[in-house]
């Protein structure tokens, strides 16, 4: 990343950290675990160990679709060192699981529905023995033709007892007879992306004396995982405990329950601790991916470029199982028109099962796919009308008080016009020099085959939006406890730190509220009350809100004796820089003195206002809050080779309130860079349902050499009054917006339609130069 990103922010907005205290909200505190991760002492799940440890391995299907004729585990069981082999017959409880819809078997029993589906698991005294024993399980298959085209799923034989259609949403808003003077159409395809976590899935299961089991996992939703595991094992939830170990980065609910559940089964069967560390190939085959999506659009506008009607068909490929596809479809349909005012919208959305790898929650699910399509439509509309693409967008942008196509009024801050104007007016980067010394600036990188004369520069725009928290009636709640003893504060909250900075935020909240400098955040396990999944900015809002409320309750306990002593209310006392003072200066003492000999604690919950499911016409107040982003992309394209270099991405985002400036900038830059991968390189290929090259060589992630200059040109701090601290989620919306902006810039450079992500080289080649 360019260090100038910070310069751009400073030039556009005052630095919030400039006047902030060294602790508390607004300060750039480093991550609490930064030093341990840097020094290599951070305890990841793959590092765990226990006395008498056994190793696990999983046998997975080599086919995308097959009928299981027989499973013979005899040879595997007889191998020296093998302690247990489990199949579907050894699942004592509920045999199915799933993040959203529990339709996925722990082990395939009669039918295999995707490449890599678990068939059996083995525990042995050495990892090589476990792998060889898993390979020794003999499975006889009757291979079936896979259904890999989601359009064919409507007419194909049912792939699952629940059928092939997971959900259909027909959104109806406005007048179906409305037409515009100008009409543009497009067909768009979004490929399959993998979360590609830094560390592959791993875990340790330890049997308990009471017949239960403890699972040590990099879980981002431990209570849901605990409940699923207990149901699978046929145990009450209080006999299954999940202890969260270090999560090596999470850009989704990245942990796959299919890795977790065999661990506990093997530990319960052997009476020994069992460890499973997935290979990178198993990681690619096992966890959920971003939904590949087919989108058909028709935009109507008047002669001035004002949108009249949007018609769209959105088809999500859920893969073999439903997972969270119903939620992703709701987001895709709801945001199908983007952050624009559209008086008439008619959207059809479907999510279907196929024999492709399962799809599920990946950052910005649903919203990312439609953003790429509706922004392409806006470019087409601008070209047809002869308007500047930014000007066309400005004529249609959403604002607070406008109504979404789902009928919900936008009550939160929606400064979309301000964001777009900020990136449009930001100075463009200088053109590269045409000298041999600067050839590394050409698309294709150092030693590339490109020629300067074949390079064209393009500028494009993207406007994106995402929802925060759950949707459609999801009960979002989190509980936190704050304790203070001997001048040290401890926070207990089951919100998992996945890299989003919750532990740092919790420290800042307590420091600001109580004036206590030393704050510890306790490790997470399921003995604590639930806090929910770590996605969509939940923990900043819900868990941070719970910590704030608990801290304020402790603050009242701390101040009440002092207020009573001086005959005043606690509201007349304030805590600043570790000191307690009254409004009139009569009282002045330190927090340390006031806490001496005391042990204070409080527990509180935070539950945002309820939402409702979309009705039969796709209408309803489905979302708690929305976040918006504008990105201007500058790219260089070699129009002979089709190679693309992203020169710069200028970002403006509404963040509600900056809680930690350094952390916020890092989250935006990371999200933008993830968007670069989606736009240009990341595509998990699955011919006939088989994952090709499930490794980090075949799956091309962007590296530091691919990361463009990221200029954070404006952060709009218009606080959302219903959110704790007024802050908004910041990570997902740049991921959603960046691919659309990059595709827009490539269109500007080449004049080609660019209707597929990631952008293939042939889509950027210009033959009629």
UniProtKB/TrEMBL annotation:
Domain Aldehyde oxidase/xanthine dehydrogenase a/b hammerhead residue range list: 39-145
Listed Low complexity bias regions: 1-22
- State the superkingdom: Bacteria
Q: Which InterPro entries does UniProt cross-reference here?
A: Ald_Oxase/Xan_DH_a/b, Ald_Oxase/Xan_DH_a/b_sf, Ald_Oxase/xanthine_DH-like, AldOxase/xan_DH_MoCoBD1, AldOxase/xan_DH_MoCoBD2, AldOxase/xan_DH_Mopterin-bd_sf
Pfam families listed in its UniProt record: Ald_Xan_dh_C, MoCoBD_1, MoCoBD_2
Q: Where is this region: Disordered?
A: 1-29
SMART domains noted in UniProt: Ald_Xan_dh_C
User: Gene3D superfamilies given for it?
Assistant: Aldehyde oxidase/xanthine dehydrogenase, a/b hammerhead (3.90.1170.50), Aldehyde oxidase/xanthine dehydrogenase, molybdopterin binding domain (3.30.365.10)
Protein name per Swiss-Prot or TrEMBL:
Molybdopterin-dependent oxidoreductase
């Amino acid at each position: 990343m360019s260090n100038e990103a910070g310069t751009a922010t400073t030039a556009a907005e005052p630095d919030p950290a400039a006047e902030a205290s060294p602790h508390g909200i607004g300060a750039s505190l480093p991550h609490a675990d930064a030093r341990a991760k840097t020094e290599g002492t951070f305890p990841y799940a793959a590092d765990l160990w226990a006395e008498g440890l056994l190793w696990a391995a999983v046998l997975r299907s080599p086919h995308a679709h097959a009928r299981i004729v027989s499973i013979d585990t005899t040879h595997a069981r007889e191998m020296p060192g093998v302690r247990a082999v489990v199949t579907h017959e050894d699942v004592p409880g509920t045999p199915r699981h799933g993040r959203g819809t529990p339709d996925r078997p722990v082990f395939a029993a009669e039918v295999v529905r995707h490449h890599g589906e678990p068939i059996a698991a083995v525990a042995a005294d050495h990892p090589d023995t476990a792998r060889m024993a898993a390979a020794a399980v003999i499975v006889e298959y009757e291979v079936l033709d896979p259904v890999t085209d989601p359009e064919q799923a409507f007419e194909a034989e049912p792939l699952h007892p629940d059928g092939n259609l997971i959900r259909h949403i027909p959104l109806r808003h406005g007048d179906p007879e409305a037409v515009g003077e100008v009409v543009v159409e497009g067909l768009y395809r979004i490929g399959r992306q993998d979360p590609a976590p830094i560390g592959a899935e791993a875990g340790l299961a330890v049997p308990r004396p009471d017949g239960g089991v403890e699972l040590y996992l990099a879980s981002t939703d431990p209570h849901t995982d605990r409940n699923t595991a207990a149901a699978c094992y046929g145990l009450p939830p209080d006999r299954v405990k999940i202890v969260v170990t270090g999560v090596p980065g999470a850009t989704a609910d990245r942990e796959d329950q299919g890795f977790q559940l065999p661990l506990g089964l093997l530990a319960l069967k052997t009476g020994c601790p069992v460890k499973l560390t997935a290979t990178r190939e198993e990681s690619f085959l096992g966890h959920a991916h971003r939904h590949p999506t087919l989108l058909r659009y028709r935009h109507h506008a008047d002669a001035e470029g004002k949108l009249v009607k949007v018609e769209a068909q959105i088809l999500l490929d859920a893969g073999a199982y439903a997972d969270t596809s119903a939620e992703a479809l709701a987001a895709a349909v709801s945001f199908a028109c983007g952050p624009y005012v559209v008086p008439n919208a008619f959207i059809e959305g479907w999510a279907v099962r196929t024999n492709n790898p399962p799809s599920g929650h990946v950052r910005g699910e649903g919203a990312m796919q439609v953003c790429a399509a509706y922004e392409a439509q806006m470019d087409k509309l601008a070209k047809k009308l002869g308007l500047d693409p930014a000007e066309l967008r400005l004529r249609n942008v959403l604002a607070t008080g406008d109504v979404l196509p789902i009928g919900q009024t936008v009550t939160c801050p929606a400064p979309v016009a301000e964001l777009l104007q900020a990136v449009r007016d930001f100075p463009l980067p200088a053109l590269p020099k045409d000298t041999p010394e600067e050839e590394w600036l050409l698309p294709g990188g150092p030693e590339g085959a490109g020629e300067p004369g074949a390079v064209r520069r393009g500028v494009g725009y993207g406007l994106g939006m995402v929802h925060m928290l759950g949707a459609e009636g999801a009960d979002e709640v989190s509980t936190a406890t704050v304790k203070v003893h001997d001048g040290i504060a401890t926070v207990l909250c089951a919100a998992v730190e996945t890299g989003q900075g919750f532990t740092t935020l919790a420290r800042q909240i307590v420091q600001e509220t109580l004036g206590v400098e030393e704050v510890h955040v306790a490790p997470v396990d399921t003995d604590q009350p639930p806090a929910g999944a770590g996605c969509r900015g939940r923990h900043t809002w819900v868990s941070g809100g719970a910590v704030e409320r608990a801290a304020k309750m402790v603050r009242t306990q701390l101040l009440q004796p002092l207020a009573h002593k001086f005959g005043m209310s606690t509201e007349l006392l304030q805590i600043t820089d570790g000191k307690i003072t009254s409004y009139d200066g009569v009282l002045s003492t330190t927090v340390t003195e006031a806490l001496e000999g005391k042990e204070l604690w409080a527990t509180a919950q935070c539950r945002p206002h309820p939402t409702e499911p979309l009705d039969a016409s796709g209408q309803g107040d489905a979302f708690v809050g929305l976040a918006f982003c504008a990105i201007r992309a500058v790219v260089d394209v070699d129009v002979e080779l089709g190679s693309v270099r992203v020169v710069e991405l200028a970002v403006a985002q509404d963040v509600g309130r900056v809680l930690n400036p350094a952390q916020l900038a890092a989250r935006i830059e990371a999200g933008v860079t993830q968007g670069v991968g989606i736009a240009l390189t990341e595509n998990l290929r699955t011919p006939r349902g088989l994952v090709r090259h499930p490794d980090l060589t075949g799956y091309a992630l962007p590296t530091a050499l691919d990361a463009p200059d990221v200029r954070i040109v404006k952060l709009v701090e218009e606080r959302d009054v219903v959110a704790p601290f007024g802050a908004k989620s910041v990570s997902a919306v740049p991921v959603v917006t960046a691919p659309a902006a990059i595709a827009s810039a490539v269109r500007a450079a080449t004049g080609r339609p660019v209707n597929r992500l990631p952008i293939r080289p042939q889509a950027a080649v210009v033959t009629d130069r």
